[in-house]
Amino acid sequence: MNNSEQKVVSVIYELTTSRSNGEVIEKVTDENPLTFISGTGNLLPAFEDQLSRLTIGEDFNFSIPCAEAYGWPNDKAIIDLPVDAFYVDGKMDEELVQMGNIVPMRDQSGNRLDGKIIGIAEDLVKMDFNHPLAGDDLHFQGTIVGVRAATEEEISHGHIHGEQSCESGSCGEGGHTCNCH
After folding, report:
1. What is the pLDDT of residues 14-73, one digit of tens each?
2. CA–CA distance from 94 to each of 82, 86, 98, 101, 115 (Å)?
3. Which of 66, 81, 82, 168 qualifies as a FRET site for 103, CA 20 to 30 Å off?
4. Does residue 115 carry a pLDDT above 80?
């Protein structure tokens, strides 16, 4: 069974990048494989495309160029925010505002964005909202460890429910949220 659209696919892999000098920056193991519904647009299209022709037990070893991964860093994604945006109860949250910290923020539409603090001045905090892997070619090496048909409920909700359904009260567990109630 190939992992075409609307299949629940589980993979284990090691990820290196063009800037990691061969050092593994992410390792996904059998204990906690990456499991997703194919064809839902939740992963990089080039990643899914490479896996789409494989079956359970098959190994993979491929690269995704920067342009097909997270693109090049965008200077417009680096912005200065007023320091008072980081105030809690009238004073700056100094634990939060540290060089290199990743800070969850919201854009004007309420979408969550993670920004990395790359500069701190008296009245401004410089944040980089580029994806951490922007500018990198990605190299994946791993194995397909599971493929099954997605249930209609999983497809309609856009995520995997595991062994229990939303009606059993399991939604919200295991790191996902379901808006089906």
Report:
1. 999 999 999 999 999 999 999 999 888 889 999 999 999 899 999 999 999 999 999 999
2. 14, 9, 7, 11, 16
3. 66
4. yes
Instruction: State which fold the 7-70+134-150 domain adopts.
Output: Chitinase A; domain 3 (3.10.50)
**Residue whose entry in the numeric block shows the structure tokens 């359970």:** 56
Cα 143 → chain centroid? 19
pTM of the model: 0.77
Query: C-alpha distances in angstroms, 73 versus 1, 44, 139?
Result: 38, 17, 18
Question: How many H-runs (helices) and E-runs (strands) does the chain carry?
Answer: 2, 11
Q: Which amino acid is at 176?
A: H
3.30.559.10, 1.20.1630.10, 2.40.10.330, 3.10.20.30: CATH of 75-128: 2.40.10.330
